[in-house]
Design a protein that fits this description.
With 850 residues, the protein is α/β, with parallel strands linked by helices. Helices cover 43% and strands 18% of the residues.
């Protein structure tokens, strides 16, 4: 479209539009609205469900300026980038208002508090591929956190993307197809491929951190990670035009430094999110544990649960801190009360550094800094190395807090250019302007009283508006008494407005003083903000230390409230839990009392526990409970039990429930087999495996055979500690042939054709599933229940053949015999491999294979 027929304002819009990414929606400020035009208007109207109109054949729609945050949030959640074009001067008749692009917002670069969940990080990621190595970088623009790592396998980087809950991921176009599995879960943005090149990216990083070499950052042999980190910084600074001055460090982290939890385990154990997004209540472990009182602490606790510790010493340091807190509950209460006065320092300094922070952010920073001396005094009451270390990391910054106390009013307005920010006494020049404006207004008040007296018009008022300035207003009934020297300015329905030379002269002085004072206040605020930003590194250190303190105090409070115990972290392979409880279920208010259970796993006779029992009896609850207790122990937390000994694990695996992946053409059973294969290929003797109903997605004998073989492999090949919940009662026979397999069952009681779930795990297997009784509890129609009983009775006892033997029982017995013979054959082949084929017929192993 040619620009010649467009108005000057639309030509200005077109210039702005060319400066933003092609896929970004441009919000163009016009008075009290942000307007969208052309294709942006069509897209925005559809997403926001607002009216699409036209003017001079140009599609357009708008949103109110004062309510823009909620609309921008909806655009961001729809995966769009939003460019903000604001007016940089007041509108004047006959003059085109100057406008500038102030920021471009993408899902991973949101910083406005109204668009964010305070208890979640907002991570922007970048991924780079170098042969068999994958580089991955993360930055949270709201907090300044910046880190990178590298992976050797595809599964590792996929698990990490799932763990960190990315808002946006940038990638070169040549690698975009490798991220197709993400679907709509993460906003994937294509960025310039050359920005991911290691040499270019390294230059970006060195320039940002003002260093000669990356070696000092520990980035000597991570070229793929450097490529990702440099690209994400380049994207922020050039494409989104964002300030990154508050990003003051880059950490090279290792995923193998923690207990590994793949995305499937994170989901199945409901670590930070419930399995069902429509759940009536939050059933996540995070929700049950989170008693933090600051957003920073909440974000840190979430990270701890997703990245549990894998080394003994750091675990013991956290345990010692919790022990010190629990042993002194009064001081713990005082500490938590003091932490409530600490605001989100990470995001406050992030906003201030990027030029988005206002005077209220400075007040929040001041209030937080003023809490620090009190917190350090309380911390002195605790004796734990980690708490002493945290105390040493917290800096009081009295000069900074004193500056804000002296300079900023207690309740400043949100707007920065309308005055009311700076406290009286801080700036003599500003005080003089305030005095002039205040004196002028007092003069106006005196003039009104004098004019009422001179004219005899008691209802005479001197008013002000932004169009006419100051004026004298007289009602129509009193116009005959208006003095001759009044100059008529405007006629209304019931009154007229006048001015006088004397009033206009004073108006110039008042308005001039107010305008100058507002401008000066804004300049002073910017100077103070700049002083604060110079302390960014110290404030960020304080934020990290206080977040750690809050997360520890929150875990201690949970342990105190629910009688958790300090687990023993063993060097051997034994996992022993006495009277263990499920940390989530025991907090839910239900009529049924939670029943604790014991657990014993080790590397010898209790390596694999086969757990049988009916549906709804509590098998799944029990095995998840053990996994959660083991995970909590690795975070350094106390655990819900009477006593616990937990060995150092390298991974926790789970295979739970029935899920399909239709987008990739995978059935429920295929997903089950993929997840099982991942476990068998990666589990080690130091892993903990949780299996629930392996083999249920196929035929009975296929499923039983797979479940049997999986249990054998975990016992004999990987030697992995395993909890195996199943309905295949035949698996209980494994305990006869394999020394390390033990049978357990969930106890039930039968009464009048009903079952009562006792929720207790007892030694020994069971050969009944009680499926019909469970169906009755679920509400199956009575005729269906009765018919099922009849069929079950005939399957087990009736339908005799001519010789008097049950037909179906005989058939089933024959099938079992064949299956058992096949399994025996497999055992024989595994112990005595068949000889090489010498004749024309196939060897036994080939028969089975074929």
């Amino acid at each position: 479209m040619s620009e010649s027929p467009l108005t000057p304002m639309m030509q200005q819009y077109q210039r702005m539009k060319r400066e933003v990414p092609a896929d970004a929606i441009l919000l163009f400020r016009l008075g009290d609205f942000y307007e969208m035009f052309f294709d942006d208007a069509k897209t925005g109207a559809h997403i926001l469900n607002i009216a699409l109109t036209q003017r001079h054949a140009v599609p357009m729609c708008g949103i109110p300026y004062h309510a823009a945050d909620q609309y921008i949030s909806r655009l961001i959640k729809a995966g769009k980038r939003v460019a903000i074009c604001n007016q940089t001067e007041e509108a004047r008749p006959g003059k085109l208002v100057n406008r500038e692009l102030t920021q471009i917002i993408s899902p991973g670069s949101v910083v406005d508090a109204g668009l964010l969940n305070a208890r979640l990080n907002n991570f922007l990621g970048a991924i780079a591929f170098r042969g068999d190595t994958t580089g991955f970088a993360l930055v949270d623009l709201t907090t300044g956190e910046f880190k990178l790592t590298e992976f050797k396998t595809e599964q590792e980087w996929k698990d990490e993307i799932s763990r960190v809950s990315l808002s946006e991921l940038i990638v070169s176009s040549e690698w975009a197809d490798r991220l197709s599995h993400l679907g709509s879960r993460v906003a994937v943005t294509i960025h310039d491929g050359w920005a991911f090149e290691t040499e270019f990216a390294a230059d970006i990083l060195k320039k940002h951190f003002k260093i000669q070499s990356l070696d000092g950052l520990g980035l000597t042999h991570v070229p793929a990670g450097i490529g990702a980190a440099g690209a994400v910084l380049h994207y922020l600074e050039t494409t989104l035009r964002r300030s990154t001055s508050h990003i003051q460090s880059l950490r090279n982290y290792q995923t193998h430094d923690c207990l590994v939890l793949d995305s499937i385990t994170q989901r199945n154990l409901e670590l930070v999110e419930p399995l069902s997004s429509n759940a009536a209540r939050d059933t996540s472990l995070l929700h049950a544990l989170d008693r933090t009182v600051t957003p920073m602490g909440a974000r840190m606790l979430r990270d701890w649960l997703l990245r549990p510790l894998s080394a003994r010493d750091p675990i013991l340091r956290r345990q010692e801190a919790l022990s010190a807190f629990i042993d002194n509950p009064l001081a713990l209460g005082d500490l938590r009360e003091g932490l409530k006065g600490v605001r989100d320092l990470e995001r406050i300094i992030g906003r201030l550094s990027q030029g988005h922070g206002n005077a209220r952010d400075l007040i929040a920073l001041k209030e937080s800094l003023l809490q620090i001396p009190h917190l350090k005094k309380i911390l002195a009451e605790f004796n734990a190395p980690l708490l002493s270390e945290i105390t040493g990391q917290i800096e009081e910054l009295p000069v900074l807090s004193d500056l804000i106390v002296r300079a900023i009013t207690d309740e400043p307005p949100l707007a920065l250019k309308e005055g009311g920010l700076i406290r009286t006494g801080y700036s003599p020049a500003l005080d003089e302007l305030h005095h002039a404006a205040r004196d002028g207004k007092e003069w106006v008040a005196r003039l009104q009283a004098d004019e009422q007296e001179r004219s005899g018009i008691k209802s005479l008022k001197i008013r002000f508006n932004s169009v006419f300035g100051y004026y004298i207003e007289v009602s129509s009934a009193n116009l005959k008494n208006v003095p001759d020297h009044y100059i008529r300015k405007q006629t209304l329905v019931n009154a007229e407005r006048f001015i006088t030379p004397e009033l206009k002269e004073m108006e110039g002085k008042i308005l001039g003083a107010e305008e100058r004072s507002q401008k000066l206040e804004y300049e002073i605020f910017l100077e103070i903000r700049e002083d604060v930003v110079h302390h960014t590194a110290s404030i960020q250190r304080n934020a990290r230390a206080l977040a750690t303190l809050d997360a520890l105090a929150g875990l201690a409070e949970t342990a105190r409230l629910f009688n958790y115990v300090r687990p023993e972290i063993g060097d051997g392979g034994s996992l022993v839990i006495t009277e263990g409880r499920h940390p989530v279920l025991e907090q839910m208010a239900t009529e049924e009392k939670f029943i604790p259970n014991d657990t014993r796993l080790n590397d010898s006779e209790y390596r694999v526990l086969v757990i049988t029992g009916p549906n709804m009896a509590g098998k799944s609850t029990f095995i998840r409970q053990v996994a959660l207790i083991a995970l909590l122990a690795h975070t350094g937390a106390y655990v819900p039990a009477q006593k616990a000994e937990i060995p150092l694990l390298d991974r926790i695996f789970t295979r739970v429930g029935a899920n399909d992946d239709l987008s990739r053409g995978q059935s429920t059973f295929m997903v089950e087999m993929n997840e099982t294969a991942n476990i068998l290929n990666n589990a080690t003797p130091r892993s903990l495996v949780i299996l629930d109903e392996i083999g249920r997605g196929t035929s009975t004998f296929d499923g039983l055979s797979i479940a049997w073989a999986v249990a054998e492999h975990l016992h004999t090949v990987t030697e992995t500690k395993t909890l195996f919940a199943t309905h295949y009662h035949e698996l209980t026979e494994l305990a006869v042939t394999l020394r390390g397999v033990k049978n357990f069952h969930v106890a039930v009681r039968e009464w009048n054709d009903q079952i009562i779930f006792l929720r207790k795990i007892n030694a020994g297997g069971t050969d009944k599933s009680y499926g019909i009784q469970v169906g009755r509890l679920a509400g199956l129609p009575k005729p269906v229940i009765e018919r099922a009983k009849e069929i079950l009775r005939r399957l087990e006892e009736d339908e005799l053949d001519e010789s008097g033997s049950p037909r179906l029982v005989a058939k089933r017995t024959n099938q079992k015999r064949k299956a058992k013979d096949a399994l025996s054959q497999i055992d024989m082949f595994s112990q005595h491999p068949p000889a090489e084929k010498t004749g024309n017929g196939p060897c036994p192993s080939e028969k089975i294979k074929n």
